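Problem 12. The chain below contains 200 residues. Write out its predicted structure in token notation.
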Amino acid sequence: MPGPGAQSRREQILLAAARLFRAHGYHGTSIDELGTAVGISGPALYRHFPSKAAVLAALAERGIDRMAELVEDSRRSAEPTCALAGAVRALVHRVRRDRDLAAVVLREARHLAPELARPSQAARRRLDRALLALLLEARPELGADQARLLVAAFYGLLTLPLAHRSQLGERQFEDLLVAAAMSGLGAGEGERDGDGDGAS
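Solution.
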């Protein structure tokens, strides 16, 4: 079992990898660049991860797990539309605050081979189920296929903070994204009844 020093180095590698994968893409980042970013040689990185793909897999699973937890926590609200609004705001806030990890989840995880993608795919199914359940509770008139399409469109909206440059303040930008997402999901009234602070 790795000691505290090894765990710290592993965490450094994950943070650096998320930053580099966002800036240059998974395929545009080499093992040597990853090693240099944390002050070790490229080959030394293999003491912590068996491959560059394993680094991507660990990041993807972490990012999607965190997103799923945010959605599941939002289901504590008694009113379905407010719960959905809380989940939407929490996810928008997470993507805006941690753009590096969000880029891995939303753009780079697709490069994983099937055997390495299984943990993150399981986490993604958990996230999808939680979001679909919230949406169908808020909009019970929807069919399952309609709900899945709306959730897929919402994921597309979440990519906007990764590349869009705006002169708006961070909070104003976040508020507009939340409003657009809730409108797209057909539940635009939820934020009026909620406190608008679904994430900390």
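Discussion. The longest helix spans residues 114-138. Students who got a different answer should revisit the alignment rule from Section 12.3.
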